[in-house]
Amino acid sequence: MPLLSSPTAAAGTSPDPQRPPFEVADVVREYGAAFRATHHVSHGQERVLRAIAHCRTAALGGHVEVCESCETEQISYNSCRDRHCPKCQGRARAQWLAAEQALLLPVPYFHVVFTLPHLLNPLVRVNQRVLYNLLFQTVARTLRQFARDPKHLGAELGVTAVLHTWGQTLTEHIHVHGIGTGGGLTADGTQWRPSPPRFLFAVAALSQVFRGKYLAGLRRLRAKHQLHFVGESAEWAADEAWKAFLGRLQERPWVVYAKPPWGGPEQGLKYLSRYTPCVAISTRRLVFVGDGVVRFRYKDYAVGGITKIMELPAEEFLRRFLLHVVPPRFVRIRHFGFLANRARQDKLARCRQLLAVVAAAATSLLSPNNLETPTASAQTASPTRCPACGGGPMRVIAVLAPQRGIPP
User: Fold this and answer.
1) End-to-end Cα, the chain, rounded Å
2) For a 10 Å CB count at each end of the chain, is N or C smaller?
3) Whole-angstrom Cα distance, residue 269 to residue 41?
4) Contacts for 241 with CB less than 8 Å, ≥ 6 apart
5) Is residue 100 within 8 Å of 335, Cβ to Cβ?
6) What is the pTM of this model?
7) Domain residue ranges of the chain, discontinuous segments joined by +
8) Residue 83 phi/psi, 5° resolution?
């Protein structure tokens, strides 16, 4: 099979010199049918595969632009706007980062990470919505317990957290990244209590409480018959097997990380913004697609983060990619503490007052829950200058309708 370096003719695209040599869409178009024939694909995963395959092709329609100076014409096809599409996330990341920067306070911030043991992966795989929600709830409750304890801080933190489900090689590595304030607002709203500048909470103690709360949540969910035991997790359905499974989880340490972000809160937010798109791999990491395989770059943190090349059969690449499709409408960016949506504006204003900060006029308090994908108008806006001559403005002269028969 030849090397794949351009969309298939059926995709209906025109040559694009700015297009990267390899894309996830190439894998989907060439090997998606074979993957569907040998693997179960959920309705949500099927929608993602179709969106990626059709993104920025004639299938979704678009528009024709002409330069008013040199009369160069170009076709711009519409984006799919699916949050799992690697081509649709750059603008969303920038929007999210701008909105979050408006919420920063002039205090130290800490980077926190809470990771689920890999032993849980088979159970999470068939209970994504409830167990991802439990993970967020457990992280919030763990941090709240430590922050409100007078022995630690005696105040309420402000935390922004992002679900991240993959490792560098696309295997399951389920964890929550967060950035939290180095200090908090007291319950009566009269004081801002700072944390030590280089220390938030002891990670060993955080790990124990995190583990205890998550395991308690698992027990509650099973008692209410809200867990499914399918595939590799089927063996844990019986009572004795379930108790043994929980015992194995109780015995092992759960990884929790908490350190100040490098260079201050702005740099911490930029780091966190790398995890806001729900995409398991970026296009720039792909090295080769063809001959039934996909090669991509990854960092091997076991040997100091050295960049290596991994080769996977195309169908295995798709299987791993689809492991990280989150349930429809699942919110994977959340705020806790005084940044929770219901009280954010009032509590932020009080924090700024206590910290002697004047809030910027017309500060945007947009919820990042609505910023995981770009808006349609943002994606279809014409560039202001011609890519050929660099000077003339581009003007839309025709609108191209989506192709008929394309499923939603």
Assistant:
1) 30
2) C
3) 35
4) 235
5) no
6) 0.84
7) 89-280+326-370
8) -70, -10
